[in-house]
Design goal:
The complex is a heterotrimer of chains A (329), B (391) and C (141). Chain A contains eleven helices and 14 strands. The termini of chain A are far apart. By secondary structure, chain B is an alpha/beta fold. Chain B has a domain of 133 residues: Thiolase/Chalcone synthase (Peroxisomal Thiolase, Chain A, domain 1), CATH 3.40.47. In chain B, the strands form two sheets. Chain B has a ten-stranded mixed sheet with strand order 3-2-4-7-1-8-12-11-9-10, with helices on both faces. In chain B, helix 4 packs across helix 14 and helix 10 packs across helix 11. The longest helix of chain B has 19 residues. Chain B is globular, with a radius of gyration of 19 Å. With 141 residues, chain C is mainly beta. Chain C has two domains: 98 residues, OB fold (Dihydrolipoamide Acetyltransferase, E2P) (Beta Barrel), CATH 2.40.50; 34 residues. Chain C is built from one helix and eight strands; from the N terminus they run αββββββββ. Classes of the chains: A alpha/beta (329), B alpha/beta (391), C mainly beta (141). Chains in contact: A-C, B-C. The interface between A and C is medium-sized, with 24 and 22 residues.
């Protein structure tokens, strides 16, 4: 059984004023998040992944594989895991894997890590990072933000065992992007419906495997593209107390593939030996629910203290969003 | 005048993605220091020829950079620029420095790193070495500017494209034998004629490639080299520089001739010799037509007949005067700032007898290099002599 | 500064890690760009040595008028860091307000974007953050 050995998380320090963005664009309704965690101009998924990975690796853990999960890599055709490996000073014997395109990909990465470490290989470092981008008023809907989380998964020396996992999938258009476009397309109502359906199916599947209903886990650590999706979990038997410590989308926005990673880090920080955690990753119509058994005291990182940040002005946010465009050749 | 050549060195001339401008400078400079048997602290001034580092490499102050990385600090250093004649100008200033009596030993270094940017960008940067604001505004490029001269020459003297093709055949014959050359394949007249048009009437095999290279010389006062008789006694015995019109519109065939003919005549007077004394010549030919023009300007042929030597053998290795035994710029490429200094290095190798097999002129004693550029704006002529056993 | 995709490919992998150049003759550590000669003894043989990332800020300035590549990040702190291994590193200090930076602050290296090349190539390198775990420099140090 694969175990979590250590973990890390990184949130950029800047908070964009979503309320001001609403007023600026004359959007109806109230802002769905207090602020958006906004990477600085010199940050991107690679640098954020680096920060989280450094924290997870601690004093020189030596992984045998590096799995990067990202929906917004700096380069579309290059391996984020390869560059991250070089930036971390890891040797070429560490195999780099890239998983993309799915906000719940952390759970895919755990499955891959489990398979890779099965026959005695050293631990796998799983890193999720995203910097979602939406321009103009669309960010009011997509709550685009950025962050990263990292987990060292191995076969010994861990504090939490990865348990059974169940999946549910339906073919939907909730959030997607054509390959040549910089911005995502979305239908929020489809997202809410699909999230609920995927959660229902995955949680039911997990319950069938573990004989434990969703409401009986110590905490639920879930992908959270929008506060509405967490409310959907509430209608499936997840109690508010299970989400209290692991909810942040209403504070800092949607972190893409890093969302479920940060939720898990928040949950692990407060977990105690003997507890069971439920991790739920959602993306593109698929939900993956996995049980984790906490066997030891997690090496807490204090992720909750990083939720608060420094507010930046509306103009700064706009400059930083637009300023990422390359100068014409 | 006698300026001693204490040492020479050069890098391969080709696309070298793994080497930066600094790497080329250090490689060429160290080779020259080693060949001269001196250390960095013996160099009292450094002249670095470089044309386009601001464009190609987004950096300036190439002379100062070179002084640091070669360990020549605190000797004075400066960057020299005169379009395609840059390397020759660096050599000229090195000679002037020695002849002035202010310096005993100086280094001359040419370097250019052209291939970090895409070709289309490089072409735009090269165009800035000519009147990019006026005539090039009309769509002219460097090859097309020189192509205009080629057409004029053909109209006036009846040169055909096949006639001109022999120049490329000769250059490629020797380029194939030059391990330091960019292009190392032989070709026939038919292959030259079939090669893709670049700027009519000039074709691909009649224009030079874009090259990364560095080349360097250590120059000294005559007495210093005389005092080391075991070293090859090769001296620079003439250095003459000139300008010509900067605009293709005012660049007549006579101008193209005079650009080199005037400094050549003064150079011969300076050295006390004539064209008939020359054994080997390096004649600037980034475009094939410039070799016949140079042959005529240096007095090796009458105007309108400079192309014949490539066809009838008289400018080949055992002809009356061997021209461009290195393969010329057609094969070595034209690393803008290094071309003039590489010409010097290649002639000095001939006079030392150390050129590779198949390209060494037997018993070469007197050589000449002619550099031009801009494309009609700068001319430079240097004469070199092996002077054994003279007091 | 690197400028083209080819130049970055030549330099890229080394710039993802923090390293300096060790002179094989006199053992002096020189900054990473001294690939060809040791400024101390003039020696010509140097090899790369990776640095651990910790150092002390010995000098700094705050830039209010940035070059184009740093537009939008002003005002930002750029300083000279004396690395623990004994070599001076120039680099920006990020994640801290200019008024909270002082000579003697302990800093550690992390990875950031330096600039966007004109070919759409991204250059990463090291910037420094305040080392929160380090003890504050004692008075008089």
């Amino acid at each position: 059984m694969a175990e979590l050995i250590s973990y890390g998380a990184y949130l950029p320090q800047y908070r964009a004023p979503l309320g001001e963005l609403h007023r600026f664009y004359g959007r109806p309704g109230r802002p769905r998040s207090k602020a958006l965690a906004t990477p600085g101009l010199d940050e991107d998924p690679l640098t954020m992944a680096y920060e989280a990975a450094v924290e997870a690796l601690g004093d020189g853990a030596a992984p045998s594989a590096l799995i990067a999960v990202c929906q917004s890599p700096p380069f579309g055709l290059r391996k984020l895991s390869g560059t991250l490996r070089a930036a971390l000073g890891l040797g070429t014997e560490v195999t780099p894997y890239d998983l993309g395109g799915h906000a719940g990909g952390l759970l895919d990465a755990f499955a891959l890590a489990e398979a890779l470490t099965a026959d005695g290989a050293g631990p796998a470092l799983v890193v999720t990072a995203d910097h979602l981008v939406s321009y103009e008023e669309r960010v009011a809907d997509t709550l685009s933000a950025g962050g990263a989380a990292a987990f060292l998964v191995g076969r010994e020396g861990g504090f939490a065992a990865l348990g059974p996992a169940a999946r549910a999938y339906q073919e939907v258009y909730d959030v997607w992007r054509l390959g040549t476009e910089p911005e995502p397309r979305y239908r929020l109502e489809v997202l809410f419906d699909a999230y609920a359906a995927a959660a229902k199916g995955a949680l039911a599947g997990l319950e069938a495997l573990t004989e434990r209903p969703a409401g009986e886990y110590a905490a639920v650590c879930a992908s959270q593209p929008h506060p509405q999706t967490l409310r959907a979990l509430g209608r499936l038997g997840v109690r508010p107390e299970q989400l209290e410590a692991t909810s942040f989308v209403g504070e800092i926005g949607n972190l893409g593939a890093a969302s479920v990673g940060l939720a898990l880090a928040l949950g692990l920080d407060r977990a105690e030996p003997g507890q069971e955690l439920l991790c739920f990753g959602y993306g593109g119509g698929e939900g993956i629910a996995q049980a984790l058994s906490v066997t030891g005291t997690p090496p807490a990182i204090g992720a909750a203290e990083r939720i608060a940040g420094d507010e930046i002005a509306l103009g700064t946010y706009y400059r930083w969003t637009r300023g990422r465009q390359p100068v014409p050749h | 005048m006698r300026v001693g050549v204490l040492g020479i060195g050069k890098t391969p001339h080709k696309i070298q993605h793994q080497k930066s401008l600094r790497d080329l400078v250090v490689e060429a400079g160290r080779k020259a220091l080693d060949d001269a048997g001196v250390g960095p602290s013996d160099i009292q001034a450094l002249y670095v020829g470089n044309v386009g580092s601001v464009g190609f490499n987004f950096e300036n102050s190439t002379g100062l950079m070179s002084a640091h990385h070669l360990g020549l600090v605190p000797a004075g250093a400066v960057r020299v620029e005169a379009a395609c004649g840059t390397g020759a100008w660096a050599l000229h200033l090195g000679c002037v420095a020695i002849l002035s009596g202010l310096y005993d030993t100086v280094m001359v270094l040419g370097a250019e790193k052209m291939n970090d940017l895409a070709t289309v960008e490089g072409t735009s940067i090269i165009a800035q070495a000519a009147d990019s604001k006026e005539e090039y505004f009309s769509g002219l490029t460097f090859p097309s500017g020189v192509a205009l001269t080629a057409r004029k020459y053909m109209q006036v003297y009846g040169l055909t494209e096949e006639d001109l093709a022999h120049t490329s055949v000769k250059n490629h014959h020797y380029g194939a034998r030059n391990p330091y050359a960019h292009l190392r394949f032989e070709c026939t007249v038919e292959e030259v004629m079939r090669s893709a048009k670049v700027a009519d009437p000039l074709k691909l095999y009649e224009v030079c490639p874009m090259t990364d290279a560095g080349s360097a010389l250590v120059l000294c006062r005559e007495e210093i080299l005389r005092a080391q008789p075991d070293k090859p006694q090769v001296y620079v015995t003439a250095t003459q520089m000139a300008t010509g019109t900067w605009y293709a519109a005012t660049d007549t065939l006579e101008d193209a001739h005079a650009l080199l003919a005037r400094p050549a005549q003064r150079a011969y007077e300076m050295a006390g010799i004539g064209p008939e004394d020359i054994d080997v010549a390096e004649i600037y030919n980034s475009f094939a037509i410039q070799e016949p023009l140079g042959v005529e300007a240096l007095g090796f042929a009458a105007q309108g007949e400079g192309w014949k030597g490539a066809a009838d053998g008289s400018t080949w290795i055992d002809g009356k005067v061997a021209v461009n035994l290195s393969g010329g710029l057609l094969c070595k490429g034209h690393p803008l700032g290094a071309t003039g200094s590489t010409q010097a290095v290649d002639i000095i190798e001939q006079l030392r007898g150390t050129a590779p097999e198949g390209m060494q002129r037997p018993d070469a004693e007197i050589g000449i290099s002619a550099c031009r550029g801009g494309p009609g704006a700068v001319g430079a002529v240097h004469i070199y002599q092996r002077l054994e056993g003279e007091a | 500064m690197t400028v083209s995709a080819i130049e970055f490919s030549r330099l890229g992998p080394p710039k993802l890690r923090l390293y300096a150049m060790r002179c094989e003759a006199c053992d002096t550590l020189s900054p990473w760009w001294e690939r060809n000669h040791c400024y101390k003894c003039g020696g010509g043989a140097l090899h790369e040595e990776e640095l651990a990332g910790g150092g002390e800020l010995t000098n700094y300035t705050v830039v209010y008028y940035p070059p184009r590549d740093f537009l939008g990040q002003e005002p930002y702190v750029v300083g000279h860091i004396e690395m623990d291994e004994g070599v001076l590193m120039p680099a920006p200090i990020v994640g801290v307000a200019p008024e909270d930076v002082a000579v003697g602050t302990r800093v550690k290296a992390t990875l950031r974007r330096m600039k966007l090349g004109h070919e759409g190539d991204i250059y990463y390198s090291q910037k420094f953050v305040v080392d929160a775990e380090a003890p504050a420099p004692a008075a008089g140090e």
